[in-house]
# Entry
Amino acid sequence: MVRWEAGTRERLIHAAFELFEEQGFAETSVPEIAARVGVTSRTFFRYFGDKREVLFGNEDLMAEQLRAGLSEAPPGLSTDEFIVWALGGIAREGFTGNRDEMRRLRALVESDEHLRERALSKRLVLYGPFSDALVCRGLSPMQARLLAETTIAALQVAADEWLLREDSVSVDVLALDAIGALEQYLPKLSINAPAAVDVDVDEIAK
Amino acid sequence: MVRWEAGTRERLIHAAFELFEEQGFAETSVPEIAARVGVTSRTFFRYFGDKREVLFGNEDLMAEQLRAGLSEAPPGLSTDEFIVWALGGIAREGFTGNRDEMRRLRALVESDEHLRERALSKRLVLYGPFSDALVCRGLSPMQARLLAETTIAALQVAADEWLLREDSVSVDVLALDAIGALEQYLPKLSINAPAAVDVDVDEIAK
DNA sequence: GAGCTCATTTCACAGTGTGACATCACTAAG
DNA sequence: CTTAGTGATGTCACACTGTGAAATGAGCTC
# Structure
C-alpha cells in the first residue's frame, strides 16, 4: 500500500482546471483546489510557485523543447529560412490535435486579468530561447530581440486564428501568412530615417 | 491648518520609489511605504490597485495621450506613413529629457520578476489604442494586432537603446532603424507558404 | 451651527505565499 | 532484524496583500 497516490501534480492541475471553469479563477482558493485532491495547500505551493502557475506548466515545457529544437537547426540556413524552419518545428510540436482543450484553456486565461498578465510573461519564456539562437547566428541583441518578439507575436496571432478554425491548416503557415502581410504595412527604411546611428555609437565608446 | 497634506499620491509614489531603491521591491511592504508618507496602507490601496501599480502610473497616462494623439492623424496617410507619424508623436511626448529618472525606473523594474511581468502587460495598454486605430484604417483585427505589437516592440527596443546612450538621437528614429533592419530578416511570403487563407475564412462564416 | 463632503482611519477578514520542523511509508545497508 | 536514511507530505506560525464596511473629523456652505 502506497502512502500517497501517484501523480499529485497532474491531479492538482486537473482539479484546478475544473474549479476555475466552474466558479472562475478569482473565486477559487488554493485550499479549495488542494482539498479536492486530498492534500494541503502547502503541497500545492510546493508544485506551483503560485496559483496562476498551475495553468502554465505547458509553456515551460514548450520553451525547453524549443531551446532543444533550435539547436538542431540544419547549418547553412539564412536568418529568414531559420525562422521558417523554427515556426515549422513549433507548429509540429505544440499545435497538433487537442485543439478543444487549448480553446478551453484560452478562454480561461482570457477571463481573468492576472492570468492574462501571466500569459504575456510566458511569452518571454518562449522568445528567450529564440532570441538567444538568433544572437548565436550573428544578430545584434537588440535586433534578435525585436525579430524574436515579432515572430512570437505572429505565432500568437496565428494560434488565435487556428483556434477559431476547424480545418487543418497548420499554425506555421498561418504565422507566415501573417508575417507576409505584416511586411506590406511596415514603413520602409529608405523613405525616411536620416539614420544618425552608426556614428553616435562610437561617441559613447569614448 | 490642513488636515491632510496635499499630493498624497505623488508623495506615495516618491516614497515607494525611494524605498524600492534602498531595499528592493520584495523587501518593501506597503505599510512601510504608507508609514513614510504618514498614512495608512488602506490609503495606499485606494490610490493604487496593487503594490506594483505605484510605479506604472505614467504608462496609463501615455496610453491616454496616445489614444488622443492617434485620432488627430492627418487624413490621407498610408498605413506605413501612419506608423511613422505615430512613432514621432510618441517620441515627442514621452521621450524628452528626464532620461536619468527613466533609467532608474527601468533598473528597478528589471530587478523584480513581478515588476517585469506588470511592465509587459502595460505594453498591452499601449498597443491597445494603436491596434484600434489600425482597425479603423481598414486592417483586419489580427493584422492590426500584429502590426501594433511589432511597432510597440520596436519602440521598446529603441527606448532601451535610447536609455543606453547619451546623445540626442530621438527614439522614433531609432525605432524606424530597428524596423528597417527587421524587414531585412523577415521571411518573404513569396518564398514559401501555399497561402490557403482567404478561402477558408469564408468557410467559417457559414 | 447644522449639515454636507470627502479623504482618511479603523477594524475585521479571506486569501497568498513561505520558512521551519515533524511525520511516516518505504528502502538500502549492516 | 535493526538502523539510518530518503522524500513527499503535513503542521504550525507567520508576514503580507488586498478589500469591504463603518466611523471620523476638518473644512466648506448656507
The radius of gyration of chain A is 21 Å. Residues 191-206 of chain A have pLDDT under 50 and may be disordered.
